C-alpha cells in the first residue's frame, strides 16, 4: 500500500498528541537515521539520543523505504532499544515483520528489533491497496451517474 494512508494516520495521531501537550517529533526514518549517523561520527550519539528522549512520541515514517547499511541499521536499532519501555515510537512501513531483515540485515538484530517494537504495541495493518479501493469507488460512482435517477413518485 502506498504510504499516504499510513502517513496520514500517523500524522493525525501526532496532531492529536500535540494538542494534548505531548512533545512529538514526526520525521521520515531516513532523516532520523542520518541525524543519528552524524552524531555517532561526531561522538555525540549519546547526546543526540538524550535530545530525542525529550519527545514523548517519535513518529518514524516509512521505516523500510531505504535499504539500510550496517551503520544505519546499528543506529536505528540503538534508537529503538533506547526508547524501549520508556518512550513511545510510531512506525509506518510497507514491510511486514517477516521482511524486516531488509532493514536490519542480521537475523538476531532483526528479531531483537521486532521484539522491542511489538512488545506493548498496537499494530494497525492495512490489507487492501487503497489505490484499488479508490478505483473501485470511482467506477461505482461513474456507474451510478450513468444510470437515470429513480422516479421519486414511484413507490418503492
How would you sum up this structure in a few lines?
It is built from seven helices and three strands; from the N terminus they run αβααβαβααα.
Structural write-up:
- This protein is mostly helical and 156 residues long.
- It has one domain (3-137): Rossmann fold, CATH 3.40.50.
- Helices cover 54% and strands 9% of the residues.
- The chain is built from 7 helices and 3 strands; from the N terminus they run αβααβαβααα.
- The chain has helices spanning 3-19, 29-41, 45-52, 70-83, 101-104, 107-118, 130-146, and strands at 24-28, 57-61, 88-91.
- Strands 1-2-3 form a 3-stranded parallel sheet.
- Helix 2 runs antiparallel to helix 3 (45-52) and helix 2 packs across helix 4.
- It starts with a helix and ends in a 10-residue tail after the last helix.
List the topology elements.
Layout: H1 3-19, E1 24-28, H2 29-41, H3 45-52, E2 57-61, H4 70-83, E3 88-91, H5 101-104, H6 107-118, H7 130-146
Helix pairs in contact: 2-3, 2-4
